[in-house]
Each structure stands twice: as structure tokens, then as C-alpha cells.
Queue: 2 jobs
Job 1
Amino acid sequence: MRALDIAARLLVRGLVLAAVLFLMLPLLVACILSFDARSFLGPFPPPAYSLRWYRAFLDNPAYMDGFWISLQLAVVAAALATAIGTAAALALADPRLRGARALEALFLSPKFVPTVVVGFSLLVFTARLGLFDPFTRLVMGHTIITLPFTLRAVLASLVGLRRSHLEAAMSLGATEARALWDVAVPAARSGIVAGAAMAFVLSFDEVAVSLFLSDAFTQTLPIALVAEMRANLNLTVAAVSTVFLGATLLLLLVLDRTLGIERLAGDVAARG
Amino acid sequence: MALRLWLLVPALLALIILMGGPVLVLGLESFRPFIPGSVRTGEGFTLFHYLELLQPAYLFYIWETFRFGLIVATLAVLGAAPLAYAAVRSPRAWVRKGLLAMLVGMLVMSLIARLYAIEMTWGSNGPLAPLGALTGIAPRSPRYAEVQVAIGLLHFCLPVVALMLVGTFRALSPRLEEAASSLGATRTDAIVSVVLPLAAPGLVSGFLVALAMCISNFIAPLLLGRGVVVFTTSLMYTRFADIGNYPSGAAIGVVMLVLSFLVVYGLTALAQRVFPK
């Protein structure tokens, strides 16, 4: 029995280690390859190192234009989704609201609409309305796909908020708006920040919705990257991936300092 | 109270304008006849685009999509459960924090970059190609694209399922395991007979969310499928991009939407009957 117990524990440790390696190793390999000095895609590991792929990335106007469009799009969509999601979460957190569970399920449902369907249906819909501006269309698509994430994160952070705190504020003379702003919004801060970060990242990385809604002159960075990967597999994308990895680590560090990873995991974990 | 209702208005409007309206128009579009060579769709009503999907070739694509989903979702739960358990219950604080940071980091990290990294690592030139060959499919053969798509989807789902399960395990009191061991159970016994049954609803919803994520994924077959792996999502995209057949694309979209909601809501409701809370 004891031997079995030890074997089982070793097995679980092995599985944890395997899962960690499975998730981390590819990122490490891409990171090392991005410094490859060879002009072609050769076997791993590279014999010499250089920054040529980073230069290739910076010198490519398609990437730079795409980067700016993606940045603007992600900022606008994340801001909209955060504002709309936070407002709805504040309303849904009220235990007196009847049908709150059904409304919550309704607001979270876009998460399970395949992104190709979101993109395609918005394309047909906006064409019917005569709306052809690509940036507006992209903002529409990116807002609806990120909304469930901001809403869910804010709702998760409001779990600890007690109705009595709001009532205390109101009994001291605060209006309901004032009470929400001064009591509920600060309590939801971690969820708002986590949700906004998730929305920004999701929008910045979105492909399916953007493929349908962008035009030849409004290409996002992910679309430029996908086009490059499909046309010829070279290491410029490895350089971009490494930049993404650096940005992710930086974001994690900032989020850990401001919210703490444990809290953050709680807010984003409560999905599904 | 009135103010709180007003706070719901922007979300309701967003949902109606950005989701309800478009899906309705998509549904209507799917019944229109297709005029080859024209972007405009014909007038009238037809079920042709749905009947077309019942042909064996199309049913095969739907089955293919689900086959990947079922395999990957199973692997995701198997890998995510120990990971999440360690992230919640490991006696070492740095292990817990490190694992959580890694999982959140994966959620934040660009999926395009992750899929590219998988191509570089598991692809025929990559250092892990010999490991991929253990599936019995040679890395140089075209069918190896299947292995890569599965790996890509697993990389996508695993952190999400693991974080869901972190929520599940956090909700279970550690006292339960302590009680089991004070009654003479080994740690393995306690996990198998106390923790796993209590976590079953979480494991099931993790599986279903992973399945839904896989069958509606577009980018993994696009980037790693090399045209060998075709999902229903890819089929819909080619309808739009290559032949401009909007009504047929719309019908595929409606079918995908229904399947995705059936997986998430239908099967979840079923699971709740089997594992009542």
C-alpha cells in the first residue's frame, strides 16, 4: 500500500513536470531561434547568434502598420468592453435583481460563439447596414468577443462585496450612484484591471474576427503575422514571438505587483 | 434599484447590436439561394445549404473536428488536474505561485506566437520531432499536421482548464483530506476517494469547455494544419474567402453555433443531472 502511494505521488509529480515542460519548452525554443544568425530555417540549435530577425521585423512596414492598428484597436475595444462589462457586473452583483443568473449567462454567451461566426455574421450584418469602415467594424467585433471576459472578471472580484457596505454608505447620505462609485468600484478594482488586461491581450491577438472585418488597407498585426507564416516560414515571427513573450512577462510582473498573482488567478480562473 | 437597471443597458445594447442582430441576419442569409459569381445573394427560400451539409464529405469534416476536440479535451483534463492540484495544494509557496504565474502567463501570451513556437519545436525540423514521432506518424509525412494541430489545441486549452480547476480545488476545504488521512487513508487514497469525486463537476465542465474551445478554434488548423486538417471553421472561411458563397458559409456558421452551444449548455445541463451539486 505504501509503495503504491509513493508510486502514485511520483506519477502525479511527473505529470506536473511534463505539463510544465509541454507549455514552456516551445516558447524557449522559439526564443532561442529568434537570435539565429542563419538566413534560412535550419535545425535546432543555431550555430551562431545575431539580431537580424529583429531588424527584419522593424524594417517591415506591414508589421509596423499592423502594430499601430492593433494597438489602437485593442485600446478602444478593451476600454469599451471594460466600461460596459463593469457597469453590467455592478448591476448583476445586486442580490435583489431578479433573473440575475439568466442575464449573466446571456452576457457570457458570446464567449461560446465561435469567433469565425462572430466575424462572418458581423460582416454580413454591417454590409446590410451599409457600414463599411473597417476600423469601426473591427471595434464592433473585438468589443463583443472581449465583453464576457471583462464582465466575468469584475463579477468575480465583487463576490466579497456585501450589500450591507453599500447600504451603510447610503444610510450615511450617499446616493446610490455615489455608493457604487465609492464602495463597489474600488472593491472591483482587481477585476476591472484583470478584465481590461485580458480584453486588451485577446483583442491584440485576434485573428478570425479580424480576417473577416478588415480590408486590404487596415491589416492588424496578427493578420500580417498569419500571412507571413502561411507564405514562408521564416524567423521574423520568432522575433515577434519573443517580443510578445517579453511583453507577457512584463505584464505579469506589473499585475503581480499591483494585484498579486493569487488574486489575479482567482479573477481570471472563474471562467466557463 | 432603478440606477442598477440602467447599468445593464449598455451591455444589453451591445449584445443586441453586436450579436443578436448579426446572428439573426446570418440565419436569414443561410436560407438564401447562392448565385455563382455574384456577391449578392438570390431571393427566395431554400434549405439547400443545410441539406448539402448532410453529405458524407461534410459530415466527415464535422466528425473530424469533434474527433480532435474529444482527444484534446481528454488530454487537457488529464494534464490540467495534477497541475491545478499542485498549484493549489503544494506545500511549497514558490511552486504554487510559479505554477499560477505560468498559467496566467499562458492565458495572456499570444496564441499565434504559441502556435508558431509549436511549429518550430514539434515541426519536422524541431528538437521535439522525435517525441512527436512516438504517435506513429512520421514527422515528414503530411499526416503529421494532425499531431501538430492536436498539440497546438492542447497548448491552447490546457492553461484554461487548469485555471478553471484551480477554482474547483480552491473551493474544496483541505480539512476533507486531513480528515481522510486521520482516518487512516494514504494521501493517494484521500485524493482518489475524497477529492476527485468532489471535483467531478469541475472536471466535467473543464472537459466541455475544452471541447467547445477546440471545435470552434480557427487558427490552429489554419497555421498548423497545412491544408491536411480541415475543421468546420476552416470550411466556413474558405466559403467566404475563396468562393464568396455567403449563404453556404452562413449555414455552416449556424450549424457551428448550435453545436458549440449544445456542447456548452446542453451537455453541462446533462452533467449537472449526473453530478448534482
Job 2
Amino acid sequence: MRHYLFFVFAGFTLAADGKLSFNRDIRPILSDKCFACHGPDAKAKGIALRLDSEEAAKRDLGRGRRGIVAGDAAASLVVQRITAPKAGMRMPPPTAGVTLSESEIETLRTWIGQGAEWEKHWSLIPPVKRAGTIDSFVKERLAKEGLTFSPEASKETLIRRATLDLTGLPPTVAEVDAFLADRSAQAYGRLLDRLLASPRYGERMAARWLDAARYADTNGYQYDGERVMWRWRDYVIASFNKNKPFDVFAKEQIAGDMLPGATFEQKLATAFNRNHRGNTEDGIVAEEYAVEYVVDRIETTSAVFMGLTMGCARCHNHKYDPLTQKEFYQMFAYFNNVPERGRAMKYGNSPPVMAAPTEAQQKKLAALNAEIHASDAAVSAKAGIVAAARAKWEKSLTGPQAWAPYGERNAAFSFDDGGAPGRLGGAQMFDGTAVVKGPEGSGAFDIEDRFTISAWVKGNGTIASRKSSDGFKTKGIGFYVIDGKLQFHITSQWESDALRVESEERIPEGAWHHVAVAYGGTRMAEDALLYVDGKPVKAKFVSDTLYRPFVNAGNKFPAPLVIGGGAGKEQRFRGLLDEVRVYGRQLRADEITVMAAGRTLAELAAKPKPERSAPEELQLQLAFLETAAPDAVRQAWVRGQELRVERERFERTFPSVMVMAESPVRKTTNLLIRGAYDKPGDAVEPGMPAVLPPLPAGAPNNRLGFAEWLVDRGNPLTARVTVNRFWQSLFGTGLVKTAEDFGQQGEWPSHPELLDWLSVDFMDNGWNVKGLLKKIMLSETYRQSSKATPALLAKDPDNRLLARGPRIRMAAEMVRDAALFEAGLLQERLGGPSVKPYQPDGLWKEVIMQDMDYVQAKGSDLYRRGLYTFWKRTAAPPMMMNFDASQREACMVRENRTNTPLQALNLMNDVTFLEAARFIGQRMLLEGGTEKDGRLRHGFRIVMGRVPTEKEMGVLRASLSYHLDYFASHGEEREAYLSYGDTEAAKGIDRGQLAGYAAVASLLLNTDEAITKE
Amino acid sequence: MMTRRGFLHTAALSSLLTKDGYAAPLTGLPHFAAKAKRVIFLFQHGGPSQLDLFDWKPNLAKVRGQDLPDSVRQGQRLTGMTAYQATFPTAPTIFQFAQHGKSGAWMSELIPHTAKIADELCIMKSLHTEAINHDPAVTFFQTGFQLAGRPSIGSWMSYGLGSENQDLPSFVVLISQGRGNSQALADRMWGSGFLPTKYQGVKFRSGKDPVLYLSNPEGYTAGARRRFLDDLGQLNQARLEEYQDPEIATRIAQYEMAYRMQSSVPELADLSKEPESTFAMYGPDARKPGSYAANCILARRLAERGVRFIQLFHRGWDQHGTLPKQIRWQCEDTDQATAALITDLKQRGLLDDTIVIWGGEFGRTVYSQGELTETNYGRDHHPRCFTMFAAGGGFRGGYTHGETDDFSYNITKDPMEVHDLNATMMHLLGVDHTRLTFKFQGRHYRLTDVHGKVVKELLS
């Protein structure tokens, strides 16, 4: 195919005018057939002749031999060698795996004869706008081929085409009728405006962006556990709907976090470059994958925005494009400064992450804050009354009660009846044998829960634990004093899946000390804070690789909370423990200080006020407010505290998202020899490849500067690559067919001047995407009928010349969305967590590890649009894969379509499409009048958007009558056929009729037309 | 999509109807006369221990329990699972080895059935790989590259060589679950990467739908479906006449192929008509749908029907701990059926042009992961040498290639890259591995990347 196409274009070229163009005609040949050896990497291979630069190709190689002698093909070494009669002498050699065709040889010969004029690679020359219009450029080209535009498509076709292109869904029958009825000249323009204003537009545009950004709901690689990135997906939808200028959209995603005063949304945008896969396997070398993530960012960023295959320069100088290996690592340096780890979290997001509340959550949070503020104000308003009442209360205090912070008190052991003298009242003596069990369900935290354990200790051993069995290395949580040092462990698997921190200093022996650990649920050692006597202490991170929750699909974790032991006999506590408290939240430092005040309320009250420390005074105040203040104040205070608990619980429900961040100190980047993580070469500074423009004046030399450079007016690539991709979304193929490669190996644009015109126009209009799409869709080029003729097919099989409109199969998610929409089943709701619609049983089970299974949604989540379908990279949704969706393991910008029997089976037999057919059948019955013909016509219009021909009606009538007869006499089969899908049919519909019309609807859904944009 | 657009007209539809199921071979392929027409790849997923199956090291008994000498380990990187171990106690196999066949190949007592066909096997003891963890190692094995994104072997072969069966896909994947420690598989291991999606492996599953969405809905008979397709054909034909789009012709053909698959696949998957002798040969497990043994019978049936590439995955070979117990299970589940498949193919005259390959993504360490006891040990991943075997299709039977040192740790003779195995396999299929390429992102990619050589010694 490729050779055939090339031949066609070469043919056009020669027919058009005799003069050959280096960029158009010669470079593609040299690049594809010669550069691999005689290109930028030639020197490394010990090859003298280079053909990638004019100077090198024409220089004297010794004894007057030159690769190319301008104007003299026969004297040129290149021609001599590509036409050498001896096989051993002939280029390219068999080992190159490529051959030159006769016409290619002839083209080279002609060009040299014409003077061998060189040109800089077209895509590196900034685009200029020649006067013209979309149609004038296309027509100009067609005229050279003796072709003209096809007639305009029918209005029915046009509205369906435009609606599919801009919303991803077909038009309704009513929309078609309204459009047909609108005979004004502005009807079509108004249609486009309506579609561009629809929120569905953002969903449609986002779908392809997710492919490019390799977005998924799992981490990939082996465990392929779940991650949470959908807030970024929703950012993309919202950005398209807002018609955010594309340069802003790009800049935010590359470096939103570094913009001055970065907003929540700008930070959220940077998740773009955290969408790459993350390896979580136990045995990996983390450094190896840390490199892969950066490489993925460069490959994705350069393919999506610049159409460059930068990844090729990772191990050696680029073989085709003027990019050196060093330049690759200079670019690498821009993306290498994220405080991240090579080993990703097995479950959930890997740092850096941020909480990403939805808009509704942000509103609710603001309301909660206001309420908290009001409660606090109510308490402070009564300060005078409180002070007086408190003085009275203090005088009444007796007994061993102490006070501890309010909120999420999970368990407390005062040990006042423990028999030994304690720090506060009595204490419990532990002798290394007995332990104290906590109440049922206490301390039942998992690795992502926040919690705090505090105690007064005098001795060594386990303070508190919750373990799968009585052992030190077993799964669970443990808080210890060992050899005088405070230790906190969360163990999922001792060697490779555990968090362990240990205080650097020893706690002085022989006295009471207050100790605490406050853990924030992030699975990171830095988030397990140790305190001794109310002060944070420095800790050593002994292990910082905690990944797997205790409770997962395959495992429960019912272990009890144990005080003084539970973590192995050797580690049982010896000594005294007092006031062991367990909280279901991460206490703040000031709260821990209050506990460490270490006096009973009565003792504190007995102290004269000036002698009390701040924590002591605070403890009295808080204890009073909670337990003894006048009712109105106490209730307001308690309400305020409870709201705080509620707020924290609420905040924990916020989705998180992985984002980009900059390490404060820039990491050194080294060139990696042959791309290997463990073979660092020279250190490199961040910088742009020499062949591209430098950073704009004043731009910082970091990721933000890179982002600014990317969308700078002087960048020759970004606008071209972007408009080309939007063109591709409308026409199926870009003006540059290789949408991911604008380099030397990429294809020459079919309409270079049009591409440049669109690019400059796009930038001139503020990178306005909706404007761009509208402009293209208003063109005559776009509005042509997609009917072909044998002559046109023979001349231009792939419709690159655009003498007809696009006729292409819908993208995977559109095939499903359209069926659901036509059935009236589609649940339209923008954004939200990914959903799990129908999927054949067991697909995950047969390939995955033990602990993740597909739990199918119920109710409305079965019917959301495809871009919300949960995407597991290693076992992607089968319907999507059948219809050529990108696997989402790596960036994919070119649209790919095949035509297979699996697609046929999918449409005929998948419950999704059977249920959709049933509901289209129901609509035919309920909305199509009382006559068969009216109903059939209605069904046909629902699916195709047009009125059927008489011939088609004949087929539908026959099919209906066959199915009605069949189901009339096969009651059991009828009920079985109608049983697909969770949603019940409307009441009162005749079952035989429903089955008959459902079968016809299935027929409609299976036509080529139903899944094709015409 | 790749080849036909533009050459097709309505008149060509009749030939399409019979021909365009899965693609025809690429122009110019095969590059030279092929010995083999198809491949059955029995992938043992997880990394079977070469030390307990094929690579007999009698001298290890003398150094049992001793720390693996540094001179052997040579500072090689270890996985994160044993890197923390203080010692690396040498763990000889506890299984008995003996020589088998005329060739005198050493095999352990774990695989008595395989031992009986020793002379059919071309045993390769000197394979090695760069990857040290499962996911990259299997991805490398199946696609020639450790990271995702490239086509799998079967996709390459079906892209290059096309199909020999009008009613079945050219690349079929069968998965069975082992009893040992299992690791995850991923779609990409049989995916088409940057090749068109139609070349991806089609997973056959046990149960009602051997291929996803194969069965008509309940209550909908094959007769009704035939009628449905006739009506559909008329609607599509009308559109084709109006629009002249060859894709419509292809669509019509694909629906017909789907219809044929609705009978050909269940017929293929239905083992009930296999004689008693088949089950006696493949073992009692063969009656369990989805078992490795049942999949081996299916593999033979697929081979008989001309399917180009038949990829089995049997999970459960990742024996980090309790290796002796687990590997016994794995061998009980696979040994008889593997040997039966090769024997069966031979009896049917199919072995001559069918390549059978057995092996996993890497080997296992000679030192014990975890405690070494009289009856128990574990082994970590070992990429520096491992054993595979091939049979039929022009591979040299009764031959053992390559040697390893006394610890089965380093290769001492004839090292073989995974790319070499692929190059050799392709050679036997009539494909020059340097010439089957696909241009993507500006590069001419091939399965063997820039590596691979045909290992002549392996050829019969």
C-alpha cells in the first residue's frame, strides 16, 4: 500500500511540473532508504559519505569523488552505486532491508541533473500564509490532476457527519427534521454553532486526546493496579468545552504547576505527563524505570505536540532527523526533575499527587468551612462567660482524669486500675508475657488510613500492634520502643512492601516519656511522624516501599488491636504503659503537645495560672469546652469539632491525581550510554535541539520555559502538528498522514500550503480550536459527498486529494455511544469516576494476579459514554479493542481502522448491542405510529438519520415479517432473546412485536452505514 | 485495509467473499522456501527452572548450601526480592536426572513423558535475556522489546504470512492456569502493537463462547442468523453500489467470515468427538476445558486447520519458594500433554511443517531464595541462562545446543539471544527476519529489532 501510494504521489508530482523539489521528492527517498547508514549517525558507524546535509553530500571524499555532483548524475557516486550492475556494489545493500524502485532511482537521477538543490526539512521552516482559502488550495491541487470537487452531500448526510464529528453522537430524528426545514443560507453555520456549544463536544474532543496522552485507569506493567486520574480527564473535557486556547491548554499540561500563582486547574492539567505507565513489580531496579518514565514523557510530548520521534535519539544519534543523543538528554533534563520514584505504587496513585476535589466537592467544602467558622465565632463571642465559668470549674476538679484531643477517638487505655503507679493515675505493668487486647474493631486501620497512637512509656517493647499473627515481621501495624528507639512499622510484606521508621536518638531510660506516631495515610515514610515528649523527633527511613493494602479483593484483615505485644513474643513489652490512646486521624503537633503535657486536669488546675505552660493551659481550656462549658457554648464547640472531623472525612473522599512537580534542587541529568540507566555518561544541561529555535527571550531554562517555547510563535511544529490532528479527526487522515512524525521519515503533506495556511491562521486567531474546526467544516471541501466512482477510486483510493468527502468508520467508543444514544439508553453526565459496563465474564481473572476483579456496574453506569469506561491497560475493554482503540500503553496519535469478523460478532452478539437493539425496537413501536412501515422508517431514521429507499424498506419489511413469525411461534426463544441487558422494557408492550422490531433494529445497527460517518 | 483498498470494485466482491477473511501474505513472502508452515508456542509463563528440568549439574551436590562464589555471580544484578539476602546458598536439584533417547539428553524425573521423545527435541540450554522481571521479560519474548507498543510474534507472522484458513483467525491464543505461583499476562503479549489491529491474537476461551461474542443470543438460531446476514448483505450491497467504498465490500465479507466462524470455531473447540485414545495420550486433564492438556489438543486441531500461529500460555512457573512442590504440580499438568502433542503431530504427519516451541521468559537461580532445607528451596529469576526446546518444522531433533557452567549460572558455549531463536524460527517459516518490516514513526521496525541471527546448528 505504502509503495503504491508513494508511486501515486510521485506520478502526480512529475505530471504537475517537471521541476523536482528536494523536500517533496528527494528527501523522503534519501531518508527512508539511505539515512539509516548515511545519515546523522554515519560517523559512529565509520561511514564517510553523509547524505543528510548538502555540504556533506557534495564534498570531496578524496580523489575527486563526491556523493552528489550537482548537474551531473553520472558523475555522482550516489547514482553510480544505486545503479551498480554488481550486486555486491549496489546500494542499498541487502542487509539494509530496503530497496530502491526504478522510479525512485529515476527521480534521484533527474533531481541531480536539475542541479541537486537542497532545502531545509519542510517542517522546520516556520509556516507562512499564502493568500488563499481551504477550498482554493484543495482545488488547485485537484485541477493539476484534472479533478474537481464532488457535489455537496445531502443535508441529511451533512448533519449526521457534522454531528458525529463534533459531538461523537448521531443527530436525533427531530434535529434532522429541523435542519431540513431550515432553508436559510445560515442553516449549516447555525448547526455548527449549536454543535460546538454542546457539552458533548468536549467529550468527543477529549476521546482522542486521551489516546494521545495514554490515559488509563491502571498502572500497566505486571500488577496493573488501579490509579485515579479521571479528574484530569474531566479537565480535558472542560478545557475543550470552554474552548481554552490550545496554546494555553498545551502550556498548562506541560508546566501548569510552574506558572506564577498556579491555580488548582493549572496544576491538575500537568497530570498529562503522569499518565505514563508505572512499574510496581517487587523485583525491579527502581532506577531503571525512573528513566523509562522520563523517556515516556519526552516521547509523548514530542509526538503529540511536535510530531517528532525524539525517542529514536535515546540510545544513539537519530538515524534520520538532525537530533543528537546529547540533545535527547538535554530535553530529558526538562522532565527529569520530578520528585518521583522508579517503583510505582501497586495500588492507587504514586507521588507526587494532589487532592483533586470535584466542583461539587469544592462547593461543599466551602460550606463546611463557613460552618466551622460560624461555630468558632459562636464560641469566641462568649469568651467572657467562658472565662468566668471555667474558673469556677477548675476549682471543682479532682481525680485522675486527663484530657486528650477531641475527634476520631478510636480507643483509649487509661490503665487507672492497672495496679502500678502511672504517669496519670494508675499504669499497667507488662512483664513480657501478658498482653491487653483492644475492643472489637478498634485500631482497624489500613495503610491508606490516617491514624495516631500515643502512650506514656517506661520500658521497652511493643506499645501497640495489629498483626496478622503474633510475629515481628508479619503483616500489620506495630509501634515499639526497641533498644530505646522508637519504631513504627507498617508491613504488607517484610522485605519488599513495608514502611519502617526509627527515631535517631534513644529515649533516656528509667523515666516516663510520652511517645506518639501520627501517620497521614500516604504510604510514605515521611508521613509517619514520630514524637517524643510532645516534640517531633528525627527519624531514619529504614524501609519506604509500602504499596499493598491489607484488605484487598483477595484478603481480609480481621486482626485485633493488642497493647503491650502482638508482634512476636520477643518483642512483648517489659515495663510500664499508661494512657495508650488510638486516634482515627493524624493528630497535629499542637494536639500531641497537649497530650504530652502529662498532668491530670486536677493537677493542672491546681497550678497557678502564670505557671502553666501553653499546652497545659490549652488542655484545661479544651477540656472545659468539651465537658463543662455552658450548654450553648459547649454545643457550639462540639459542633465545631465534629465539623472538623466531618471535613477531614470528607476530604478523604476527594479523588487524588498524580501531577508534575519540581524538586527544589535540580537533579543532575547524564547522557545515558546506549540509553541504559546504569551507564551514565557526561552530565548535560537542559536545552533545545540545535535544529529547532532557541528558547524565547526571557523564558526560564526549565520545564516552564520549555512549555513557553512549545507554543511560541517561532516554533515551526506545534501549530502544524495540532491542526493536522484536527484535520485527521474530520477526514480520517491528516494532511500529513504520519500525524506522529513530521520528521524526515514522515510523509510529505498532501497539501503543504493548506497546512501552513491553517497553522498560521490558527495562531493568528489565538489558537482557537472551535474556530479552526468551524472554518474547516464550513469549507466546500468538507461538505462534499463521500460517494466515490470507480475512476476516482482508481486514481485516489485513499482520498488524499479530497475530490470527495470523508467516509470513515466511527471510532470505537463512538460505535457504542451511538447505539446507546439511538436506544435512548445513554446516560449523559459529564465526568466522574470511570465506570465498568457490560464485559464478558472472567476476562480479567484469566490474566491477572489474584487481587483485582471486574465488578460490573449496575444501573446508569452501564450506559455512560465510552470515554468513561474503566481502562485497564493489560486487559482493555474488548469491544474497544475490537474496534481499533489504542491500547493506552503508550501515546497514539494516528487513527487506525481495520475491518474484521470480530467486529461483526461484537455488533451481532454483545449484550450492549442486543439491549440497544431492543430499545430501538421499543422506540419504533412507541414512537413510530401504528403501521409497520411508519415504525420501520422511524427505526431506520433513528440509526441512519435518513429516510430509507423503497428497496431498503423491502428488506426491512421482509426481515420484520420473518422475525415476527418466528417469535410468534417460539415463545421461549422470544423471551430468551429479549432477556439481554439489565433495563426492563416499557410496560404493556407486546412481547412478540418487541422481539420482532428488536431483531430489525439489530439488523440496522449491523449495517456498515450505522457505524460509518458518510 | 492494508492491501486491498483501491484495487477493488464491486465486481471483485465474489472473490472477496471467499478470500478476505484474514489477510493474504505480503507480496514477496515467503522470502524463500519454507520448511514450516505454522508454529505452536507452548509458553511456560513465570520462568521454569532449567536446573530442575534439563540443565543437569551433578557437581553441585558437593557444594550444596555453600555461598555462590563471587567468581560465578560476577556482580550481576539481582531482583529486589533476593538482593537483600545475606547469603546465596547453592541449591542442587533434589530431582533425579537420567539420560534419554539415542541422543542421551539429560532430563529430570519430573518430565518422564518429554523424556520419551527426547530424540525429537532440539534442546537449547544457552538462551539468555536482558530482562529480569516478568512483565518486561515476557513482553520482550513476545514482541522483541521490553516495553509495550510493538507487535507480538504471532502478529508479525500473520501480517507477513497471512492465513491458510478462510474460517479461522490466523493467530490464536490459548491460556491455561497453573497451580504454582502465577504472574499476570497482558493483552500486549499477543497484541498487534503498531500493526493494524486485525493482526492481534484472538484469544480462544473455554466455555460457551470460545471467541468473544461468538454465540448468537439465546433464542436466535443459526437459521435466523443466516437470514439476518442475507438481509444485511442486501442493505450493505445497496450502499456499496451507491458509495463504491471498498470498505463496505470488506465489511460484507467479514460478516460472512464471522458466520463461518460461528460454526468452525465451536466445531474446533468441541473435543467430544475425539476418540478415547486422544485422551489416553494427552492425559486425564484433557477432559477439563481450559486445561493445558485440553489446550494442547486444541492446538493440534488448530494446526490441522492451518492456523498460522498458535500461542499457548500456561501460568504458574514462578517458584520463588517451595519450588519442589510447585514444580511437581506444574510438570504433572503439562509434561504428558506436551509430549503427546509432539507425538500426535508426528503421527498425523504434521510435525514436519509445524514448529513446536517450549519454554518461558527466563530461568531460575542456582542459589536458594529463602531457606534451603533437605526438601525445600526457592529460586529467583535468572536471565543469564535458561533452557528451551523446539521440535518439528525443520528444527534438528536429538540435538542439544549450548552449555552452561557448573552452576547453570553463566553460559560457556554458544550463547543464544531470544532474537536468535525468533530469527531461526522465522527462517524456518521462509522469512528473512531482517526483511519483514513495518514502518512506524519513521522507522522500519522488525521483530528482531536490530539483532538476531539464524542459528544454523539448530536446523535439521
